[in-house]
Amino acid sequence: MASRKILIVDDNADIRLGMHLRLKANQYETFFAADAFAGVAEARKHRPDLIILDLGLPAGDGFTVMERLKQIPFLAVIPVIVVSARDGLGNQKRAYEAGAKAFLQKPVNDAELLAVIRQALGEPARTKSPTLHDQGSV
Amino acid sequence: MKETPLQVLLVEDNAGDVRLLREMFSKERRDSFQLTHLLRMSEAETHLAKGGVDIVLLDLGLPDGHGLDTVRRAHAAAPEVPVIVLTGLDDEALAAEAMNAGAQDYLIKGQIENRALPRALRYAVERHRMQTETDLIRTNQMQFKDEFLSHVSHELRSPLTAVRQFVTILLDGLAGELKPDQREYLEIVLRNVKQLHSMINDLFEVSGVQAGKLKIELHCTSVSDAIGYAVNTLQGAAAAKGISLSSNIERILPSVCADPARLRQILVILVDNAIKFTPQNGTVTIQARTFEEDPDFLLLEVADSGCGIDPDMTERIFERLFQASNPAAADHNGLGLGLFICKDLVTRQGGKIWAHSAPGQGSIFSVTFPIFSLPKLLAPAFSEERQIERPITLVVTEIGSQTGWLSNEVRADQCRGVRELLRGSLYSDQDILFPKMDSAGPAELYIIVAITDGVGGAAICKRIRKQLDSSESLRQAGLTHTTSYRSLDPILRNPNQSMQDWLETVATQIQELMNNEISSRQVRNG
What we know:
The complex is a heterodimer of chains A (138) and B (526). Chain A is α/β, with parallel strands linked by helices.
């Protein structure tokens, strides 16, 4: 099976690279966008299987991205996982209402992120990942 | 310089006193004071509410108002207007109390010297203005500080995410094999990053604590789950110090009325602290039982064999930024916010927290939580008058396996997952989730009571089904579920019935229905 495509929308280049390395090691193909506008454009271009979305972004924010994706039928169906440094209480509710599949707070635990990705993609859960160190939460 | 006259409201029913005071005012310049005189408190309230009064001279014995009550009423009508109390010679004690109730000053009738009255008025107005200003500045400062803390903790999270990500990438060998030394050092980095993360969370929490903004959602919450979570989360940290971390709980523990996430947080803070302050090879034990002193509460205790706390300090440790000056914990400097956050969270969920200790003999931290009761949980949902007429829906979700009922081994784990799913699917003010977890017998049974508002039982059912169908863990464990609903007739309130009585009737009826449901299924399931 061809590897699933994931679009990472985050304005922090280090975080994009970090996620890319982790996802690549788990056989996902990655694409990137650094602002809200590019987020939608890249989604249109690559039609990813899943989008990882930061909330604080230039040229809009994560919510505007979700709103715009909603208006385009073939993009509206792509599952979105919000990964944000913003406080969880209000934003989590808002993200779910906007159609997000999951809300994770930064600093995100990679084990959790991978589990959530698999769930959103409908892939079977793995009991043990070959490459996982960050299992515990703080 | 031309002054604007000070608008004085005199509330006094004794004609003699009024005449005396008027005389005093008449000796002042005409443009310095303007006097309005009223006889009754009710008139004064109306007048104050209109605004324009600079200061009130208030008698404490009016035909329609007595003592401190008049001061409170004046305050309620115009909180920004200072009040000077007029009192008789034998009433000085009352006057002092009036000051405590918010009066600016008091004047004793018959002892007011000519020139003293205008001075007292001017001072009172000025003092009040300064106080208001100081209060405002303080409020602004607090708000700024909270916003600042919230902003800072948010900004710190992003770079920390990158650090954590790359450390784990290296540790997992994604950039090549590591030498044992390199691995060890990176593990030290990761440990410290995690500590930093928890400090940032504390900062964020405390900004919420100060602003009273922490969100608490009360549910019927299983304490054993929360204890299990805390033990799991901190077992590693305990093991690293050779500390034995265990729990000892009554077999049948009532659920409590608490926010499950906050309960876990409280336990994690307490257990984490216990581990920090306990030397190598010590013990940390979590206990839970019904509180002997008040059976409406559940008592949770975290006991350690650590260095203990000076008895004088057992209250101060809950203050903000308090740091024990203990050499044993010198390498574990947190921000001193954990217990402060704990206390706020516990208090706001209706419980209490305290510590018992003696230096060198370990400490016991005790927390109480109100035991779950359906009426308590139902009250807010029914409290709006409009909701009385609405139908109530009972939704029952049962989880079983294809081959029979759940074995005990799969139950605990899988059903915890299901519970979380259900909670997630019922994020709505109109729903009240009542998972009857402890007495569910061979199958797990969940009962959800909802006051429907456009969302009927069928819709709630559909939502739950959808959520459960998409549960990977449920499918993998070979579990199936059935979900059914029944709409109940609105339970109307008898006009003679008090709100409280009516709420209890509703809650009792729902409780009975649920008990019937549970026992009928237990019979069916053998």
